């Protein structure tokens, strides 16, 4: 009897040690991902702020030159910046999750879904304009739609809001609304929510993207060349595709497997990959969109000229005095005459 009891105690001790070791591994992984994303998040945050400055400056100074691309990229940048703001809730509490009420977590998850879906649909909107903008045989009603990029962006936002409400209904707040617990953005015991999130947020936008690529190539022979000239669109779409594919694979995978500490850490890494994709997209918009890139270059040049101008003025205001001895005709008599040179 004592032997059986000792065996049970030893097994319990082994399980406790194993669980403790796995918990430490999970915390180390989540913390490392946290530090890595902090760099990307700071870069994306700074890029977003400068993009707003650039778009506001371009619209104010050259409103007539404001194009459909500027309108869509401006709203798209707002969506990606919103995703980065939501990521602060994860960044500030890792390796653990944020503690909040079930209602607060449901609102945060709803906001996250709205931002992600709007960003994905705005990428399809970019391809829609590229596919039909140069087609002269399109119907008059479709041409009116193409002439109103701002209304198209608003329409996409409304569709995204409706889809996010559907996901919110499937997710639902768990338990009492005022109970406090860990808040994971896409945590839900319902498999239907995770599958619906995968279809709405990833599969549907990519199906639309592939369809528009086929239509654009079929209706316009120069469609691929126009894509090469506007490299920002395929680049942003590819970054979003791979980062969100990584995230949604882990999201769907957790449906059929128990959530262990290490799996939670891997889900945190997947979240940071998705957030990092938004940061990279903002940097790409800043660098590949010509008006924003020119504004950045002009700002850097102005700062450099300002620094150089201050250095030049400080040298003029504080001249250096150099005293040298020169020999004149009295040198033969052993006399030297000091000469003062003012060197600005």
Summarize the helices and strands and which ones pair or pack.
Layout: H1 2-61, H2 68-91, E1 98-101, H3 102-132, H4 140-146, H5 149-171, E2 180-183, H6 191-219, H7 223-229, H8 232-253, H9 261-288, H10 290-317, E3 320-326, E4 337-343
Average pLDDT confidence is 80
Q: Name the poorly predicted regions.
A: 1-14, 339-344
Q: Identify the CATH architecture.
A: Up-down Bundle
Within CATH, the superfamily carries the name: Rhodopsin 7-helix transmembrane proteins
Structural class comes to: mainly alpha
Largest sheet: 2 strands, antiparallel
Give the strand line-up of the largest sheet: 1-2
- Give the H and E element order: HHEHHHEHHHHHEE
Measured by DSSP, the beta-strand proportion falls in 5-15%
The count of helical stretches stands at: 10
Distance between the termini: 98 Å
- The percentage helix is over 70%
Overall geometric form: globular
The top-level CATH class is Mainly Alpha
Number of domains: 1
| Radius of gyration (Å) | 30 Å
Oligomer: single chain
Q: Can you tell me the CATH topology?
A: Rhopdopsin 7-helix transmembrane proteins
Query: Count of DSSP E strands?
Result: 4
